[in-house]
Amino acid sequence: MKYFEENNIVHLTEQDSFDIEQTLECGQCFRFEKKDEKEYRIIAKGKVLNLKQTDDETILFPCTAEDFENIWFDYFDLGRNYEHVKTILSEDPELKKAIAFGSGIRILNQDPFECLVSFIISQNNRIPMIKKVIKNISERWGKEVGGEYLFPDICSLENSDGASLMECKTGFRHKYITDCLEKLKRGDIKLEELKQKDTETAKRELMSIKGVGTKVADCVLLFSYGRSEVFPTDVWIKRVMEHIYFGDSDRTIGEIHSFAKEKWGKYAGFAQQYLFYYARTLKISKK
Length: 287
What we know:
six-stranded antiparallel β-sheet, alpha+beta, two-stranded antiparallel ribbon, TATA-Binding Protein, Endonuclease Iii, domain 2, 8 strands, Endonuclease III, domain 1
């Protein structure tokens, strides 16, 4: 990646395998707003960042070279060779089509707490409503920065209760958020320590939270802990997998996970993102 800073604007002049629209719109995060074609505002890592992409460059502002190197380079996973990942996965002719469609997707490295609560909120929910609930929570308990509100940290959200969370339109999910906060406060789960634990152990700990099933746990592991061997499976992934790989026959989540693990191994999470974006955007599924 080549870049330079000028007047608090970072210009990314080499952007192989990096499309901001595909990366933000592929279901892995919710705190973004589309301002125009290939122009977005995101709220992450305690910052508000604007991005604008052309064929020649991506500009990030306000952004210093130091912030780009210490925050956004890792957040957008810019140090990874995605051409290598795509070459390996493209050995599968069916997956190759999805990769060609979403060739600029990168997997974000998000804050584990925000990611966990966001995907708890995402259950049986539409993306516009998920974004609205997260915004409501942020405006109520988060810190204001640059005219936006950051997602609150654990300590700030500890002041919430079921009634106040319900006022933020969480619905039945307020019980799950409350249980999550209680387990984190007691130290039953230490998010920082999950980084040192193997994937299955980390997954079991996350799933000890009420309302956190295998899909939510896998999302947190993939989008916050870099566990690229997991394969988050929602309705779109289940349908497209059944359509492409199982002749439109029904399969359990366990069967799909076993297939993904055997076929793609440590690259399963990347395959999932390409397939999700492909299936949801083009409405490709067995139905």
